[in-house]
Amino acid sequence: MTFTISQRARQMSSSAIRELLKLTADPTIISFAGGLPAPQTFPIDIMHEACERVFVDDPQAAFQYAPTEGYVPLREWVGARHGVPAARVLITTGSQQALDLLAKVFIDPGSPVLVESPTYLGALQAFAMFEPRFVEVPCDDAGMIPDALTTELTAGARFVYAMPNFQNPTGRRMPLARRVALVEAMRAANVPIVEDDPYGELCYSGARLPSLLSMNPDGVIHMGSFSKVMAPGLRLGYVIAPPAIMDKLVQAKQASDLHTPGFNQRLAYEAVKTGFLDAHIESIRTLYARQCGAMLAALEASMPASVRWTAPEGGMFVWLRLGEGVDSAQLLRAALAPDSGPRVAFVNGAPFYANQADPRTARLSFVTVTPQGIDEGIAQLARILNGDGARQRLRA
Fold first, then answer.
1. Which residues are bridge partners to 303 per DSSP?
2. What is the model's pLDDT at position 343?
3. 177, CA 20 to 30 Å: which among 10, 14, 140, 282?
4. How far apart are alpha carbons 233 and 236 in whole angstroms?
């Protein structure tokens, strides 16, 4: 059989991270690659009790088809947490589906989409299916530079995609003054902001900052997720949008999967309605802060002076910039097949760029590795970078 596939399918590519995770399933590899929550943070006992309540209270409804918009009590809970009515909340099958739905609703071939540089690989993958023209907004260690959002840069843009809290991949957080400036610039340009915020609850240093949504509810589409604070296996996310956009998102979701699994939604609601989540999140913050500190200390102790890195105040990631002429993809190959010592995995930075990649960059996740494993893995990367002939073997 010869299959004729669509032009869109021919342009698809696999996620570099998902492909790498297949390799790093080997328990002998010290993996800084995945953005996976630490399994010990999953609230198993709470979820077990919640599951029992779902089966006792209304099991038939839990297994029946459900409204596309989502389980009303869960939508109300999300809305109350963000200060918006439940009518503006759509429950999605993970926040990745929200990205896909937004792409379907907003993007035509060739339409401009503004993104950070670098930005979340999963968003680039979801948007690229619909053939936009990616426009990279200049960024620094505090995120997007609002003054760079000129009339020429924003002309015709369908939206600007931003991760203001502990961005994936860099871990950076946008300060308050810059958030205000970004919201005002996009309001003036009549360009909506898509605010992706899976890590906002994972703040373990500094004060919490207001969301972009809270600054302009009619001009910001906000995405959130239960994956990082409860369990990714539930595949529960949500999008908060103005009514006109909500209608189109619902229509796109009806064509996609009818609705997110109702059982999972009820399970999540039975858990969060007890009020356990805030204390649970605090325990996650404590764990991740300790592991982030271990990684920053290991980097300081081992890395050559030519390497620079971020010091995140939350989230899951540290972003490295290697020395001049060093290619992180070559370092990854060497780390996965070293001459001696443990095998180490991370994600090279190139896939996180929409257009012009920086081959010297790399993303390290610290949340699923013990402090001892972090010390060993960082020391091994440093040995490879400092080894004989390293510059020649690892050059870009």
1. none
2. 94
3. 282
4. 8
> What is residue 339's predicted lDDT score, i.e. its pLDDT?
87
Q: Give the integer Cα–Cα distance in Å for 88 and 369.
A: 38
Q: What is the pTM of this model?
A: 0.94
The predicted model gives 355-366 an average pLDDT of 95
Backbone angles phi, psi at 113, to 5 degrees: -130, 125
Residues in the chain: 396
Predicted confidence at residue 34, as pLDDT, reads 83
pLDDT surpassing 90 at residue 186? yes
Instruction: Give the per-residue pLDDT at 20.
Output: 66
Answer whether 113's CB lies under 8 Å from 161's CB.
yes
Please tell me the distance from the alpha carbon of residue 203 to that of residue 281, in angstroms, as a whole number.
9
* The pLDDT of residue 364 is above 90: yes
Taking a C-beta distance cutoff of 8 angstroms, is the pair 364, 330 a contact? no
The two tokens of residue 38 are 């630490």
Euclidean distance between CA atoms 247 and 244, whole angstroms:
6
Alpha-carbon distance 362 to 108, whole Å? 31
Q: Any residues with CB less than 8 A from the CB of 137 and at least 6 apart, and which?
A: 114, 115, 116, 117, 144, 145, 148, 149, 153, 160
Distance CA 166, CA 173 (A): 5
> What are the two backbone dihedrals, phi and then psi, of residue 174, each rounded to the nearest 5 degrees?
-80, 125
Mean pLDDT, residues 214-221 taken together: 97
**3-state SS, residue 92:** strand
Chain-centre distance of CA 156, in angstroms? 26
The whole-number average pLDDT for the span 134-158 is 95
Enter the tokens of residue 128. Answer: 């690229």
Average pLDDT in the chain: 93
